Amino acid sequence: METIINAIIKTGKNKFRAQYEKEKDLLIVCTTSQPEKNKANKEIIKELKKFFKCDIEIVSGLKSKEKKIKINLPKEQVKEILESTN
Fold first, then answer.
1. Helix axes of 39-52 and 75-85: crossing angle, nearest 10 degrees
2. CATH architecture of the domain with range 3-85
3. In what order do the strands lie in the sheet with 66-71?
4. Which end of the chain is more exposed for a tag (fewer CB within 10 A), N or C?
């Protein structure tokens, strides 16, 4: 089972964090990296892998602030993890 979630990326922040907006079913991801040479995408994948403890893949929006991220967990489990962080 896997889940695709929409995400908005904000680059160049002081620290990495992911915040879930339940009403919009949207993940807001703040990265410390700039969107150059794929640095922000690599940071997103690395940090979200740690956060969800599973494989993560960016399936669309590699060069955009709007991305679709595939999380290799069932949707219920993803929502449970996200809601517990807010």
1. 100
2. 2-Layer Sandwich (3.30)
3. 17-21, 26-30, 3-10, 66-71, 56-60
4. C
